[in-house]
Amino acid sequence: MTTHQITLGAFNLEARNPAELAAFWAAATGATPSPGGESVYLPPAAPGGFAMFFQPETAPRPEHQSSHLDLTVPWGSRQSEVDRLIALGATYKWDVLDEYPHVQWTTLADPEGNLFCVAEHPPVALQNG
Length: 129
Hints:
Layout: E1 11-15, H1 18-29, E2 34-36, E3 39-42, E4 52-56, E5 69-72, H2 78-88, E6 91-100, E7 103-109, E8 115-120, H3 124-127
Parallel strand pairs: 1-4, 5-8
Antiparallel strand pairs: 2-3, 3-4, 6-7, 7-8
């Protein structure tokens, strides 16, 4: 049997201003930007983290965003993380808090309008009521 070990190398984003957008995400994740030419690489901030790569826009941003990041935080810390990210420049979009017993999340947009979610999963005992 073949075992596959696929991991996320980096989440790539085109940006109007790659350096400014990388600075937001660096503050959000705790990573240190590594600029190179017009692009910026943001390595994982910790083991098991994810990298990001910001490059200049090559075309206008589509009206509909077909993918986004789902970030997970420990149970009970979602609201404080949302508040921190908004203070860094994110924009609040909406909450999904009561629809699913296994997760609740807040959807935000980064300074260039890219959507992302901050989710928390309750302990199993709370999920089973």
